[in-house]
Structure formats: structure tokens, C-alpha cells
Amino acid sequence: SDVYKRQSLEPISNSIKKLVILKLYRPDRFTHGSKELVDLVLGPKLLKIPELDLVKVVEKESNCNSPLLLCSAPGHDASFKVDNLAKTMNKKYQSVALGSAEGFEMAEKSILSASKTGTWVLLKNIHLAPQWLVELEKKLHRIPATENFRLFLTMEIHPKVPRTLLRMSQIFVFEPPAGIKASLQRTYSTVVNSTRGDRNPVERSRLHFLMSWFHAIVQERLRYTPIGWSKHYEFNESDQRSTMDTVDEWIDDISKDVPNINPGKIPWDAFRTLISQSLYGGKIDNEFDNKILLSLANQFFRIESFNVDFPLFGVAASDTSTKVLTLPDMRKTSNYMEWIDHLPPIESPLWSGLPGNVEKILKEKETLALIASLKGLQGTDESEMVGEGKEKGAEGKATWLAELQLKCEKLLEILPGNIESMKRTTLSITNPLFRFLEREITVAGHLLEAVRYDLGKLKQMCEGVIKSTNVLREIAKSLHADIIPKKWNVYSIGNISATEWIMDFKQRLDQFQRLSQQSDYGRSGIWLGGLLYPEAFLTATRQAVAQDLKWSLEELDLYVYIGVTAPENSQCFILHNVSIEGAQWS
After folding, report:
1. Own/partner pairs for 554-563, CB < 8 Å, 24+ apart?
2. pLDDT tens digit string along 126-149?
3. Which of 160, 222, 506, 570 is the most buried (most CB within 10 A)?
């Protein structure tokens, strides 16, 4: 029996050992390797989810009293699923977009009417009206509906949607497939069709493809945040539709329904301005991201895009292995759709104007997120207080409480007792660098005090000296799963464990203590990533230089030199431990 158990568990044991090795040496392959372990433990069918059959759901698995809730990621509208379903089943339905007082009134009338006649109602974007949804849930309980009545709801995943509505609904989650090819296929199935794209002039279809490719790149770069974009922006299909509607209107005014127009007469400047400043650009609040968007608009929306073999992306001259895609020279929408279907299934980040190694960085981030989620699944039994519970330590307390107590003691040993404040003088208060460091040390001191206080209270709770509170319980759950408690997470940091966060925080405190004793306040060397708010340091350096030179901030330019080890003058600042991600230094 023992031999049989060992033989049956050996493949699982080997798979776990492989994951440990992958985590250490190839974290970008960890997610792929974890699928093997899932197949061995839970069976290969678990991850093979069959295609959702909405016709079967409506006919056999739903009823008139339970709404069908279609959730989607931001930027993806799942309402087309209802459109296709209604056509397939030859059903009439009324669609209402929420977000205004008129929409609420129309929605209530539509639901009341459809519940009597047995038709369908589709309410779009219900996440825009979370308070009204409470009233909707109550009305659905009161309305006597006929058997054929169905209520469809679409929403982006949102935390404020009432839980009672979620419980009474059948929930389906739709995520748009990632990649430029999938985005193009989605565009040519929902936004661009032959009726729209094949109208005169023939140049229209080429412009539609350029806008589709541009939109695909803009959305694909969101996957690589913060390398593709510095933060996540809500680019969605409405931006694309608005751009195409405006462009079609301009082309109609220029062409006067003639079969061809001169590409030189197309208002390229207006196209670029519309995209970079109004539609897509109107959602961007970062100067660097604005430059990226403008460079993409300049790349695709120019007269050269009508040249034969116009490249859709660029590669380095030394890269001879990457095949450059060129803009297809076609006139019909159906031809473009056929070209899209024949794109290779494996896409390169170069298509989106990103370095080739960025995919590896993305996979490593996914690995960290996966491990963090697994840690979060390690629950704590709230009923297991001191002296209770099934698994007990030597002192008669729950095992996880004993482990948490030991962890709190070790973390308290790592952290210093306090951090000395900077001493103000009449001269130092006029220095922007001093004022910056004083704010950093003050915030760090308050955070250190809060962390030590929480760890001390947790230790007392584990010892049975004090009772548990909601705040302590949440911190205990986080530390048991080795996740940074939300209360402590007051500055930006990577996806690391709580123990790693404490070690990192200790290094930041050591730097602050050292900088507070330096007369140059960090000019001779500073760990930029070890500051709580590094962007404020850059602002302080500009203010300090402008103050020394008696110049305005607008007259200053920032230059970065690699390899400088000591400041050459009062305008120079030395940075340590800076690395480059998603780029190469040559």
C-alpha cells in the first residue's frame, strides 16, 4: 500500500520539484509549468473549458426570475453576444444604455413591458449606476414575469455592484483574447464591415486598416504596463468607433463619392491631432505616454503609408531574423480579413514597437502575481483563538497563531526602534533637498511607528494578552499569507512578499539615517528607488539647481550620464542601483 502511494505521488512530486527549479532559474516559464501540475492533480479536463452555448443557457438553464449578467474586462463590450444570440434565436429585445436619468426611466418601462409580453431586455453598462441597481434588484423580486422573459445585463468588473444582484444572477465572464491578431479580428467583426469599408473612395479601406492596426497596438501595449504605457488607461472600442466615424466623415467631404482620391489631400495633420489630443490622447495624463502616442500616430498616419510595402513596425538593422510585416495592398474589406486570418499565431512584441525581451518580463510578472494569489488562498480559521482549534502548538494555541507570533518577533528584531528627525536651521530650511528629505523621513518615521505598533499588538494577540479586532485580524491574515497589509502599503513598490517588504523598508530607513547626516543631502550618492516618493526628489533637484543659478525651472534641461562616480559640480547628482528594463544600453 505504501509503495503504491509513493508510486502514484511520484509524478506530482517531480512536477513540484520542476516548479521550484523554474521559479529559481526561469520564472517566465513558471506559469506554463504549473499547468502540468494542475493536470496531474485535478485532471486535464479542468482547464479545457468548453465554448459557452448561450442558446442552451437561455432555453434550459435560465429562468425569467434570474438575470443573465455578462461581465467583461474594461474596454471590452460583451453586448454583441446578446445581439448574435437574438439573431440566432429570432428573438425581439430592447436595448437600454444606463448612465443618465432618462436611461433609468426607459429601463424600468422596458422591463415592465417585456415581463408581460415575454420578450427580452438588455441593460448595458450597469456598473455606471450601482445605487440604482439596489432598486432594480428589489423590483425584479416584485414583478410577475412570463416564462419567456429574459433580462440581460452587461457590465465591466466593478466592486460596487450590489452583491444581492450578483447572487440572484447567472454570471458569465468574457475576456477579449490578447494579441494584435485577435484585436484585428474583433475590429473587422464588430466595427468594420464590407458595407462600411468598401464604399468609395478605395483609399478608405486602407485607412480603416491603419486605424485598426493602430488601435490594436494601443491596446496591446497595455498588457506590458508599465513598459508599454506608464499606467493602465481605459482605451476601448468607443475610441475606435469615434475615430473611424470622424475619419469617414472627412473622407466623404473630400471625395464627393469619386472612386479615388489623392493621398496627399487626406488631412493627415487633422488625423494625428484628433488621435493624440482628443480621443485616445484625451485619456492620457502622462507626458511620456503622450510622446509614445504621438510617435505612433506619426508612424501610421502619413502620406507614406500608401507606399508599396509600407512597414507596420521597425526592427534594428542588426536583426536579420525578424520578418517585417508590410501593409497589405488591397481594396476590399474581405481581402484584409483574409490577410488578418493568415497572420502567424505567435506574435512578437516588436509588432507593438516594444523590445523583444519584454515578453519575458511580462511572464515573470505573471509568475509573481500567481504566487501571490496562491499565498492569499492560505486561509486562517477565525474561530481558532488561543486555546482552541484542532491543530495546536506546544503552548495550546492554533498552529498558525504560533507561527505568526514567531514571525512578528523576528520582524520586530529587524526594524529599528525609531528614526531620528532632521534638525532644522535657518539656512537648511531654504534648501529644497533638505525640505524633501525632511518630508521623506517624517513619513517613514510615522510608517515605522505604525508597523511596530501593529506587530506588537499582533504578538500580544497571539500570546492571548489582548483580544482580536477587525483591523488586527486583517493584518494577521495578510502576514500569515506573507502579503503586505494594505495599511502598510503607503508607497509604490513591486510585487513582493511581506517579509521582503520589511527587509526593503529597513534598507530605506538605513539610507534616510545616512542621508540625514550628510551635509550635501544626497548629492554625492543616493539610492533613487529607495526613496518613498522618488519623483519628488527629481523635482527637488531641479529647484535646488534653479535656486543656485538663479534661473527659472523652464530654463533647465535634464541629462543622464552613465559611469560618473562623483559629482563634478553643484548641478550634478549621483544615483546608485539604477537598472533598465525593456531596453538595451549600447
Report:
1. none
2. 888 888 888 888 888 888 888 899
3. 222
